[in-house]
Predict the structure.
Amino acid sequence: MTRPSTYAGKTAYHGDVAVNYDRDRVGEPVWQKEQAWVETWARGVPSGAKVLDVPAGTGRFIGIFRARGAQVQAVDISEDMLAALRGQWAPDGATVVVEQGDAEALRHGDGAFDFAICWRLFHLVPADVAERVLRELARVCRGEIVVEVFGVEAGGPARLAWSALKRKVRTWLPRRSAGAKPWSHITNFVHNEPALRAMMARSGLRVVRVETLTDYEGRPARVFVLRREGSQA
Ligand SMILES: C[S@@+](CC[C@H](N)C(=O)[O-])C[C@H]1O[C@@H](n2cnc3c(N)ncnc32)[C@H](O)[C@@H]1O
């Protein structure tokens, strides 16, 4: 049996980090770009479709899916993030269902969702966790799956190791150092694109398209639109 994974981003989103999550980010141009991208993608989500949002965080996309008439299942590991979500969106248990859960081991049945979105998780998790999440998304979602990855490294292993070292040094610096953000203390992982694509293929997912949203700390933030291998586009 696989042991439960431990990484900083699994436990870091509590207390003030959760309470101030939106306040600290909404003003960022990248946040607004992401919001606009999801709004455009969601035009393909028909009324009544079942959408899984994991990790849902404070529920930044709920209004978008609700406006489409979709049923949203919001899952996050952090009760504090979900408390912030509930405060904003008043889930009704029918069109919006909120549940504490782990993206690595979802409790939902095979093909339970028509669409799934996994946004701003992969930079928090090591490669083995990322692959488990992909497998779970492939299992529970029969339609389009969106995975957004911050700071993808396009180069090979040497560039990847260098990026990882730089990030480590940055998280060692005191939080008040110049340029530190309220989340600078949360360890990040850098993934490279060939490795991500290989993981997706091993998880039974094919890449329908990839878009670059913006640069994040000198590396692209990529959005992968995926489908199960063999499913119709
Ligand atoms: C950077 S936030 C992203 C939230 C949201 N998708 C967004 O774009 O604002 C990362 C979230 O991942 C959650 N998280 C970390 N590991 C998780 C896991 N294994 N399963 C579910 N949620 C997880 C954290 O609690 C946190 O809410």
The chain is about 35% helix and 20% strand.
